[in-house]
Write a structure and sequence with these properties.
This protein is about 35% helix and about 20% strand. By secondary structure, the protein is of the alpha/beta class. The strands form 6 sheets. Strands 1, 2, 3, 4, 5, 6, 14, 15, 16, 17, 18 and 19 form a 12-stranded mixed β-sheet that branches. The chain has a 4-stranded mixed β-sheet with strand order 20-22-23-21. Strand 22 and strand 23 (about 520-525) form a beta hairpin.
Length: about 550
């Protein structure tokens, strides 16, 4: 059996100009990055601005196991399957972060015969977007420290600097550091924190910006610090937004690539869903809706994270309306949610499956609260038994929810045609989409609505630090905005050990960060961290490159 990277390396890719041409994109509307990648430029947006939008299909999932359950694979396979049944479909995905690629998860371009290619490029440096975002963020941080070093005309309080440096790599040693040591020439010593690039506000700003002008405005609005009187200091006060925009002028353009079956894919932006808003860029999604009759996109991790943020943040800010939500489930993930250890998931266990199925029911109910028709995709693994599959079909039938057995990993688009037909049928029906809360509500009420309606918590506990941060947000007038909850992906609660559908619990909010450039408030719960660490055996240990530049071990 071929590995993911071997399948990708054997792919017969079409030149990117042919993929662009299949969508009616002219050579003047894209910039090639080699033979198989391209950046889509502003003239294309301008030409298509008055075109009718296609239908938006959101792919999300139940709470995952630590191994991941194939949501991106299902998204890719669904797009290929839609093309097989004659539907003009454009896939819009997030860019992989180097952190998970070299950490526990590996690559994020799909798997098996449902992949996006060139897989090695996409999973590694791609077109340089991540590096540009990292550079822009760290330029802002350097300007802050330099301003203080050069006399601090803005009277920035060094104890209240709100912007962290970032790096697109899992590196726990950088979570809390001290900078500026070594004497006066090296600046002022102070505590600093690093977060992973995909959790930076600059990443969120890029993903939510409509164009370069909007990008520059949002960058200028980033709250970077408070002065000694407690007044806010923004990036624009440091004259930082112009240079940051210059670094991001190419990164704001969506990237065009293809699936193994030579269907078009836009990949752009990559915020994590457990510590950020978890969706690809607004620009890529809007463009995909103009270029196809259907846009298939995904939101990270379980529906309690990525899908909630997709609906309450991205759709609200961009005026998007999903026509259908696909919830990816697997037998093994449901058994894991039913209390079975990871090493025993290959064994048939209908009792554990029944216990864990409440997690699927909760996510289906939650998506219906947004007024979106739901289809379940049961992503099949070779260890699934017919009895287990039959149970899931019966369980979904009792919920009145269509379910398709999906085998895109092994069969590509051919293994997803049942799902594609169900999605088309659901998308043609009525969607009464609406966010779960009114953005005019106070921040606490929005937090508590998500905790109650999506996580099914009994209430919310606020630490003293969180109470202080909320009061400061209100003082700034930063209240009529969505909230972005940072929470573990493994549970509906903020405790990763509480699987299935936890009961009798409260969510603990330990801090709140105003992201005035992105236009939302980040709410930190439980022990969630914004800089992940590497596992005991990182994926990096299995990745290699030979003397001819051929990469192996990337999965």
């Amino acid at each position: 059996m071929l590995s993911d990277i071997e399948i990708a390396q054997n792919a017969k890719m079409r030149p990117i100009g042919e993929i662009a041409s299949s969508l009616g994109i002219t050579p003047e509307e894209y910039d090639p990055y080699g033979r198989y990648k391209a950046k889509l430029t502003q003239p294309l947006f301008d030409r298509l601005s008055q075109e009718k939008d296609g239908k938006l299909i959101l792919v999300t999932a139940i709470n995952p196991t630590p191994a991941g359950e194939g949501k991106t694979t299902t998204s890719v396979g669904l797009a290929d399957a839609m093309a097989r049944i004659g539907k003009k479909t454009v896939l819009a995905l997030r860019e992989p972060s180097l952190g998970p690629v070299f950490g526990i998860k590996g690559g994020a371009a799909g798997g098996g015969y449902a992949q996006v290619v060139p897989m090695e490029d996409i999973n590694l440096h791609f077109t340089g977007d991540m590096h540009a975002i990292t550079a822009a963020n760290n330029l802002l941080c350097a300007l802050i420290d330099n301003h203080i070093h050069q006399g601090n005309a803005l009277r920035i309080d060094e104890r209240r600097i709100m912007t962290d440096r970032c790096l697109d790599m899992n590196d726990r040693a950088l979570r809390n550091v001290v900078i500026g040591l070594g004497g006066k020439v090296n600046g002022f010593p102070r505590e600093e924190r690093f977060r992973i690039t995909v959790a930076s506000e600059v990443m969120a700003v890029l993903c939510l910006s409509e164009d370069i002008s909007d990008l520059k405005r949002r960058l200028g609005n980033i709250l970077v610090a408070y002065d000694l009187d407690g007044a806010p200091v923004y990036a624009r006060d440091l004259d930082a937004e112009g240079a940051m925009t210059a670094l991001l002028k190419d990164a704001i353009a969506p990237n065009l690539v293809q699936t193994l079956e030579n269907n078009p894919v836009l990949i752009h932006g990559g915020p994590f869903a457990n510590i950020a808003h978890g969706c690809n860029s607004v620009r890529a999604t809007r463009l995909a809706l103009k270029l196809g009759d259907y846009c298939v996109t995904e939101a990270g991790f379980g529906a309690d994270l990525g899908a909630e943020k997709f609906c309450d943040i991205k759709c609200r800010l961009a005026g998007l309306k999903p026509s259908c939500a696909v919830i990816v489930a697997t037998v093994r993930a449901l058994k894991y949610n039913g209390g079975i250890p990871k090493e025993e998931l290959k064994k048939e266990d209908l009792l554990a499956l029944r216990r864990g199925a409440v997690n699927l029911r909760t996510h289906v109910e939650n998506m219906r609260k947004f007024g979106i028709p739901v289809v379940v995709s049961l992503n099949r693994f070779d260890t699934d038994t017919s009895e287990e599959i039959d149970f899931i079909r019966m369980f979904c039938g009792e919920m009145g929810c269509p379910v398709a057995l999906t085998e895109v990993f092994a069969k590509g688009g051919e293994g997803g045609t049942e799902l594609a037909r169900l999605v088309v049928e659901a998308a043609e029906g009525e969607s009464d989409f609406k966010p779960i809360y009114d953005e005019k509500l106070p921040l606490k009420e929005k937090i508590e609505t998500i905790a109650r309606e999506i996580y099914r918590a009994d209430g919310v506990i606020y630490t003293a630090a969180a109470e202080k941060a909320l009061a400061e947000a209100e003082k700034l007038g930063f209240t009529d905005t969505p909230v972005c909850v940072a929470k573990t992906q493994y549970s509906l609660s903020d405790d990763p050990s509480r699987l299935g559908k936890p009961e009798n619990f409260e969510i603990t909010v330990r801090d709140v960060k105003v992201c005035s450039g992105a236009g939302f408030a980040v709410v930190y719960t439980g022990d969630i961290m914004t800089m992940p660490g590497l596992p005991k055996k990182p994926a990096a240990n299995s990745i290699d490159c030979d003397e001819n530049g051929n990469i192996s071990g990337l999965f």
